[in-house]
Amino acid sequence: MIERQAGRPLVGATRLAAAGTVRVGEWIVTDDSSVAVVQVGSIGRVAVKPGSRVQVLAVRPTDHRLALARGTIDAKVDAPPRLFFVETPSGTAVDLGCAYTLEVDSLGNSRLHVTGGYVELQWRGRRSIVPLGAIAATRSGVGPGVPYLADAPLALRRALDAFDFGRGGAAAVRAVLGAARPEDALSLWHLLSRVDGGARGPVYDRLASLVPPPAGVTRDAALALDEVVLGRYWEKIRRIVWRREILRGIRDIDPRTGTARPIQTSPRAPASHR
Fold it and tell me: Domain check: are 193 and 238 in the same one?
């Protein structure tokens, strides 16, 4: 099912007047003033924003799949993980129960911003797990970069871009470590498995100083990229990120532990005496 929300989108070669159907293999095309909303089975909705080209690849109980060739979509899915996929020229977004905005430019590069739940970006064995409040970019021929929080320092974002897509090497890694806050443990956890073996020690040590590892996580096992150990560390980091985003503006969350702290208020001026 597809609905026209603005303008006159194309479905295949037909202008969409109000509502209709879209079949596997057909393209949805919006011009600079058109918006269409696609019902993804019974699990969610996808808004196809202006200037976009989207193809329906599969509609099956275990696999709802779109291809975003260019433009922007807003997706909201309420379903078990790994039922909804969006393919782009530089990676595939795998729904883990989420809401997100995905943009693809004319070169096939993409930018993902997750606004609910989690999304996994995949490309030829490389993957990034992007939680609520985080952003990740992909590049053609490279795949997904290291995700970062939307409010990450500019220096951190620039250093990650240089490392992922600019051959920044050791200098970029040092810049990432220098700019990282406790909140940026998400990025350092991903970076740990992407640097050369000799650089893992400094990355792990910085990560551990910002967010202490949970019980059962040892330095040697983490440097060996033990999947169980890294999974335990990830569980702690993702819980902290989730609490921070959900309770933003309501409670002050310790970025190292995820526990609530008293919100600091300005001291009240002493009452005057006559």
Answer: yes
Total domain count for the chain?
A: 2
1/135 same-domain check: yes
Q: Which of 98, 266, 108, 244 is nearest to 183 (CA)?
A: 244
- State the Cα angle at 31 between 27 and 35, rounded to 5°: 75
- pLDDT band at residue 262 under the 50/70/90 scheme: low
- CATH at 102: 2.60.120.1440
Query: Quick check: 109 pLDDT over 90?
Result: yes
Q: Is the pLDDT of residue 39 over 50?
A: yes
DSSP letters, 59-84, are EETTEEEEEEEEEEEEEEE-SSSSSE
Confidence check: pLDDT of 27 > 60: yes
